[in-house]
Amino acid sequence: MAELQKFIQSSNGAFKSDLMKSFVAKHKGGYSPSSAVPGFTGAGIFPSTTTTSTTTGGDTTDNANIMRQNIDNNQTGANTNTTTGNTTTTQSVTNSDNLNENNGNGNSNRNINNANRNTQTTTTTTKTTSSTTTATKTASPEQPDTNANVSEVTAILEEVKRAVPEAVQLLVQQVADATVDAHMATCMNTHKAVSEATQRFMAMKEAGQLPDMSKLSLSAGSMWEKMMEQMMPEMGKAIKFCKMLPGFSELPQEDQMKLIKHGSFEVMMTRFAMLIDHEKETMLDPSHKMVCPRAVILAMPMGKFLDGFFHVGAQFNPIGMTDGEIGLFTAVLIFSPCRPGLTDLKLVSNIQNLYQQALFNLMKQNHSDPEEKFSKTLSLVPMFRRINEEHSKALGGMKMQSPDSFDKQFPPLHKELYLEGQQ
Q: Where are the domains of the chain?
């Protein structure tokens, strides 16, 4: 825990915003989402109708104070499921989602249930959650189950399409700008960098200067060691990215550590997916200095697991996300309320919804088919969760089979993040 604590306790790079602080203060308070399963992305905080705020007798140039006041006064729509103690009163719901108002602290949250959006009971919700969990676990990387969270994705899409108050719009834009900047500052695998590296290797190949990796004398084990050395800085960058995200530093430190331990590998997966050419079946190494054929990757220690990156690339890359959109999606992965051991699920869920809204808004600016891209992107969440779990299991297996070799190959931060973090 010492290595990770050093990263978290350092104030360098942490995002600070009075507007975000006001938002966090409004939405603090723990709750347990009824559908917290792998792929669960939380609940919407955005009202179904636009709230218009006016100011009189004050300085209209004080936008920060106005925005904070608007957020503090923000109320959700009228159709709610009211929960008091252990008794749930269910009402008819429109707009394809359920609104759960937690009377214990006065904060509202929307839970997405994967069943008929008409009148439902708590029993129905529980059965649906169980079904979703099964579907998620049985899907394979080669053939991801597109129905695993389709109802949830549809509900989230409807949520982010709704009009929101100007104060929330400004906060969402602030989140988007800061996240894109954080991604570009901490990610080496941008479209431009990967394209330049690919063109460089193509030129070397045409000139006969590119060695055949499959015929080199380097063993798969030595290549694995080189790749591991190159991955270490990327882990630090992924943690730094998390710290730079709006809202992250406002969470309890215990929750910050849980989110990093359980989510930082998913951040790295999205970044490494950029290195994959699933058509040519090759992968750039993290330093962009060599191209590895898939067969060489498969021969490495943990090769079968690493081969799953090609399945990720085949699903993720064709969506055609921009660098900024990838950054926002990785933030959605980080702020997942389904991580075990969180002390404030509600706050994590509400912050995640800001990032979902920011991702959709950016896709609307960049693409002619934003709804399709948004849905496809969120539908891949269970795949990232599953491979994340497989990574931890693979590390655990290596440790059991050869503990001495394991300790030599993996530095303390890697073991702390991806082995201890899942316990």
A: 169-422
Token duo for residue 185: 């500052």
Q: How far is CA 284 from the centre of its chain?
A: 23
CA–CA distance from 268 to each of 183, 197, 198, 237, 389 (Å)?
12, 19, 20, 9, 14
Q: Phi first, then psi: what are they for 168, rounded to 5°?
A: -70, -40
For 316, the enclosing helix (H) or strand (E) is helix 308-316
Give the CB-side neighbour count of residue 3, counting CA atoms within 13 A: 16
Provide the token pair at 322: 């921009």
Q: What are the tokens at 209?
A: 């200067």
Considering the domain 169-422 in this protein, what is its CATH number?
Answer: 1.10.565.10
The Cα diameter of the chain in Å comes to 78
pLDDT in tens, the chain (423 residues): 566 666 666 656 667 777 888 888 888 864 444 333 333 343 444 443 333 333 333 333 334 343 444 444 443 443 334 333 343 333 333 333 333 333 333 333 333 333 333 333 333 333 333 333 333 333 444 444 444 578 899 999 999 999 989 989 999 999 999 999 999 999 999 999 999 998 988 888 788 776 655 555 455 666 667 777 777 788 889 999 999 999 999 999 999 999 998 998 899 999 999 999 989 999 988 888 888 889 888 888 778 878 888 999 999 999 999 999 999 999 999 999 999 999 999 999 999 999 999 999 999 999 999 999 999 999 999 999 998 888 777 777 777 777 777 676 666 666 676 665 444
Instruction: Say how far apart CA 374 and CA 112 lie, in whole Å.
Output: 17
pTM over 0.90: no
Tell me how crowded residue 224 is: count the other CB atoms within 10 A of its CB. Answer: 20
Residue 274 to residues 135, 194, 222, 230, 277, Cα–Cα distance (Å): 27, 7, 23, 16, 8
Q: Which residues pair with 111 in a beta bridge?
A: 98
Dihedral-angle region of residue 157 (phi above 0 means left; psi in -120 to 50 means alpha; beta otherwise): alpha
* Alpha carbon of residue 388 to chain centroid: 12
The answer to whether the CB of 1 falls within 8 A of the CB of 416 is: yes
Q: Nearest CA to 171 among 244, 95, 64?
A: 64
Helix/strand number for the chain, H first, E second: 18, 7
